[in-house]
Amino acid sequence: MNPRQLKNKTQRRGRRKAGIRKRVIGTPECPRLSVFRSAKHIYAQVIDDLAGKTLVAASTVTAGTETGGNIAAAEAVGKALAEKAKAAGVGAVQFDRNGYRYHGRVKALADSAREAGLQF
């Protein structure tokens, strides 16, 4: 992929992200679960946008998984995040896929968090 294609790809994701963020706002009652994925790791955090605070965070860096760029690691992060969120008193969240397709690692993280008891 040449640099021009990469720039366009990043810009398209930015536009998708802006459209999602117009609709999804984290409140104290129902915070936002935001997902970021890189080639090596996946990160997720539960955010109260009104207070500007991250309530709970989990990632493949902190979860202690061997590799972070696969579906199994994303499932581990989703489960860890849901357990931390429940311990912090968060039961329901709004899912912010951050401009990524709901597919692969993003979907695995979301499904794992749902199975562990998080509502969204």
Rg, alpha carbons: 14 Å
CATH topology: Nucleotidyltransferase, domain 5
Principal-axis shape equals globular
- Average per-residue pLDDT, rounded, comes to 92
Strand content: 15-25%
Subunit structure: Part of the 50S ribosomal subunit; part of the 5S rRNA/L5/L18/L25 subcomplex. Contacts the 5S and 23S rRNAs.
GO molecular function, one term: structural constituent of ribosome
Protein name: Large ribosomal subunit protein uL18
Pfam family, one: Ribosomal_L18p
Question: What descriptors fit this protein?
Answer:
Nucleotidyltransferase, domain 5, alpha+beta, 4 helices, 4-stranded mixed β-sheet, 4 strands, globular, 120 residues
Describe the structure concisely.
The protein has 120 residues and is an alpha+beta fold.
Structure description:
This protein is α+β, with helices and mostly antiparallel strands. The chain has one domain: 2-Layer Sandwich (Nucleotidyltransferase, domain 5), CATH 3.30.420.100. It has 4 helices and 4 strands, in the order αβββααβα. It has a 4-stranded mixed sheet. The relative contact order is 0.19. Part of the 50S ribosomal subunit; part of the 5S rRNA/L5/L18/L25 subcomplex. Contacts the 5S and 23S rRNAs. Belongs to the universal ribosomal protein uL18 family.
